[in-house]
Design brief:
This protein has eleven helices and 13 strands. The protein has 344 residues and is α/β, with parallel strands linked by helices.
């Protein structure tokens, strides 16, 4: 069946003539207009099936959309129609914030990579929740993850307050919730991955979740999203805390600060997090280490550098239960979703 996915190589030429952030906005706008028109909606719909259970949730397939593509939850329905088994939107912060100054996204096409220093740019929790509630995706059986973070102006010592505000806000509207403590683009955020700080944060999250579960009469799984730039000791400490505080899953990994794989390329010295193909091997190591220390049953979502069905399969072999895509969609197009489902 013909769909617009097959034309992506042509569209990519036009999109890559724009700045990375302008192309991002143009792509979402085009997809939304196509979806909103009943005559063209079918051109972007796909439904590859390989059902799995993840964190107690029933997914139609194990390939998800990573957070960051739709920070405000404004395009949930169209993204949910493209064949993903689950989608994650955000990161959202309690208050609106503009993020870092532009330009703040840079392509490294030689390596199928991207550097971004967006900095949790979003319209805030109230707008985010209005968009989520307006969408039909969950009512039609889709699995929706909501990703929460802290405001840049909130001191790191008060970060827990922001996460609790976010948790309370999104809880009634999420199938699962992701705690993002691993973006490199909010000052000091990754300090929350240190054992003492993480223990304090997860303790507060667990306590608030128990209260919210009683209030809403439903258990919403919580996942922690971590960085790839962790040593073995840090990974072991994080694994122990995930088990101690009964966190439901872990997402490995966010973008990397390493530039080893892209030395000498245009934009390689830009600050921010590197995503795309160079991240794949790094995330595999973290996934394998987590699986070793968390045991066979703990849910792991692998993300970072999936550019082919084979690489999705490698994430599963390393120990992931499911994968998420983002930068791979930019370089390979939406057909990557079905390719990954088929390979897995």
């Amino acid at each position: 069946m013909f769909n617009l996915f097959s034309t992506y190589p042509l569209a990519r030429k036009a999109l890559f003539a724009m700045s990375a952030e302008a192309a991002h906005d143009a792509t979402l706008s085009m997809l939304q207009k196509t979806y909103d028109c009943t005559f063209t909606r079918g051109l972007i719909q796909d439904n590859p099936l390989k059902p799995i259970k993840l964190m107690g949730l029933s997914l139609k397939n194990p390939v998800g959309l990573a957070a960051g593509l739709d920070k405000n939850g404004a395009h949930i329905d169209v993204l949910g129609s493209m064949g993903f088994g689950f989608i994650e939107v955000g990161t959202v912060t309690p208050k609106p914030q503009p993020g870092n100054p532009k330009p703040r996204m840079f392509r490294l096409p030689e390596s199928d990579a991207l550097i971004n220093r967006l900095g949790f740019n979003n319209l805030g929790l109230d707008v985010f929740l209005a968009n989520v509630q307006r969408s039909r995706y969950r009512r039609q059986g889709g699995i929706l993850g909501l990703n929460i973070g802290k405001n840049a102006t909130t001191p790191i010592e008060q970060a827990t307050d922001d996460y609790l505000i976010g948790l309370s806000g999104v809880y009634p509207h999420a199938d699962y919730i992701t705690i993002n403590i691993s973006s490199p683009n909010t000052q000091n955020l990754r300090r929350l991955q240190d054992a003492a700080a993480l223990n304090e944060l997860l303790s507060a999250i667990k306590q608030r979740r128990e209260a919210l579960a009683n209030q809403h009469q439903r258990h919403v799984p919580i996942a922690l999203k971590i960085a790839p730039d962790l040593d073995d000791v840090q990974i072991i400490e994080i694994a122990e805390l995930l088990l101690k505080h009964q966190i439901d899953g872990v997402i490995a990994t966010n973008t990397t600060l390493s530039r080893e794989a892209v030395i000498g390329q245009p934009h390689a010295k830009e600050t921010g997090g590197l995503s795309g193909a160079p991240l794949h091997a790094q995330s595999l190591k973290v996934i394998a280490a987590l699986r070793q220390h968390l045991g066979a049953e703990f849910p792991i979502i692998g993300v970072g550098g999936v550019m082919s069905g084979q690489q999705a399969k490698e994430k599963i072999i390393a120990g992931a239960n499911a994968v998420q895509l983002y930068t791979g969609l930019i370089y390979k197009g939406p057909g990557l979703i079905r390719d990954c489902v088929k390979a897995m």
